[in-house]
Amino acid sequence: MKKMHIVMLVFIAAAIAGLLIYMGDVTTYETIASARQKKGKAVMVIAKLDKATLNYDALKNPNYLTFEATDTLGDRMKVAYYYEKPYDMEKSERIVLKGKMENGVFEIKKKDGILVKCPSKYKDDMNAAKKNLETASN
């Protein structure tokens, strides 16, 4: 074999190894029920925050937050987040949780483990639309 062929084979092998390493860190969107079945495996769950269960005390432990979340199928789970509470979390419609199910609790141990999906500013506000119509007609 020529030296060029050997170099190409080494390059291809390195590229395949890089892709395999990258694919090992990829997570998938799951329901709460399927996340429970995949204990210890990193998954992403889209859920709605139950604001009544939010438990965060910045004075006692600023890096610990617990709450319950519900997915679109109605399943609930307890969530533990080991960083400070995300800004405006209570105003969110949906949250994306990236973590692992451990001992019945969805544990998030990465800082970017909670993505807050804020309400859309383009959502129709019927009262504002009605007010704009009344002002426009006068």
Description:
With 138 residues, the chain is an alpha+beta fold. The protein has a domain at 28-117: Beta Barrel (OB fold (Dihydrolipoamide Acetyltransferase, E2P)), CATH 2.40.50.140. The protein has helices spanning 3-23, 32-37, 126-137; strands at residues 29-30, 43-56, 65-70, 76-81, 94-102, 105-108, 114-117. The protein has a 5-stranded mixed barrel. Strand 3 and strand 4 form a beta hairpin. 14% of the residues are buried.
List keywords for this structure.
138 residues; alpha+beta; OB fold (Dihydrolipoamide Acetyltransferase, E2P); 5-stranded mixed beta barrel; 33% strand; extended
The CATH homologous superfamily of the domain at 28-117 is called Nucleic acid-binding proteins
Oligomeric state: single chain
CATH class of the domain at 28-117, anyone? Mainly Beta
Q: Let me know the number of strands.
A: 7
Read across the widest sheet, the strand sequence of neighbours is: 2-3-4-6-5
Strand content: 25-35%
N- to C-terminal separation?
Answer: 86 Å
Percentage of helical residues?
Answer: 25-40%
Could you describe the largest sheet, including whether it forms a barrel?
5 strands, mixed, barrel
From the coordinates shown, what is the CATH architecture of the domain at 28-117? Beta Barrel
Helices and strands, with pairings:
Blueprint: H1 3-23, E1 29-30, H2 32-37, E2 43-56, E3 65-70, E4 76-81, E5 94-102, E6 105-108, E7 114-117, H3 126-137
Parallel strand pairs: 1-2, 4-6
Antiparallel strand pairs: 2-3, 2-5, 3-4, 5-6, 5-7
